[in-house]
Amino acid sequence: MRRSFWQRFFSPITLFLWAFRIVVILAILVGSFRTLTAGKYAGDQWIDVIVFGLSQGSIYALIALGYTMVYGILRMINFAHGEIFMSGAYTAYFVAAAFLSSGFLNRNPVVSLLVVIAVAMATSTAIALLVERIAYRPLRRAPRLVPLISAIGASFFLQYTFRGFFGAGFQAYPDWNVLKGEVVLAGIGVLRTQAVAIVGALFLMTVLYLFVMRTKTGTAMRAVSEDMEVAAMMGIDVDRIIVITFGVGAAAAGAAGVLYALVFRQVWFFMGFVPGIKAFTAAVLGGIGNIPGAMVGGIFLGLIESAGPILFLDGLGIPSPNQLKDVIAFVMLVMVLIFRPTGILGERLATKKA
Description:
Strand order of the largest sheet: 1-4
Radius of gyration: 22 Å
Structural class: mainly alpha
């Protein structure tokens, strides 16, 4: 037994992983120390970076809920979820543009924003249900690789369908006059679009969490997630619960699309790819299949992606550290999974579910 332990400890893979951990941790500590002691960035700049990270991370978390809910029940990754996010934001753009041209947008800013979000949520939900019915349901009992390929195909289909209908160019999201400028919260100036994104995402995540944890349908969803066959034997309509799961996750993604457009001010047919990958990363970081984990993972990823390049890399003398934000995000994913393979709040899955 002792020999086996030492053989495992001194294996090339184990040594490489430990060396990788040590190098990354030293780089983070040294870079952060040099950045903070250099005095190059004022406190206000750090606050701006953190607020932007919170707004971005809240959006990632809202999208990640769709990934983690579908995985929790079907044990599959819905790689078309990024395009479902895109479809809601893109369709709602035309409603917002019509409101702007008629003057309704700024005469009734709250009503117009709620209508735009409702349109985005309805569009994303309708497309998600069609994808589930056409691309996923017939393959539910197939080997796992088959629905994964189907999901990738659905992703490309949605991307190029929207490109064909609406063109390959960027569309600038309309301005709400009421969302221009800053609002002061606890003495901190926050852009109003970022404040709306943070508050809106947190509100929607809270509603979704309460829906899953406190309602009869949410209890059924958790039962199906635990064991689909036993849940069916207990009288739960599994197909209905799966449809509701896709619909709820898609509605959250549609709302996230509008919040994303308010912060970044543009939409296009390919806008769902990168946020979709980041949201999937957030779901894995938090513990795939775990709803609170998706929320924590999204906010954590947004903060790391926003503050990490400056905090970790600027002190190491790396030019243009912000161009490496994606590298920072995925390195942090690798680090978290090395130390905790199940994610931040994830639990070890049974062999049947893994």
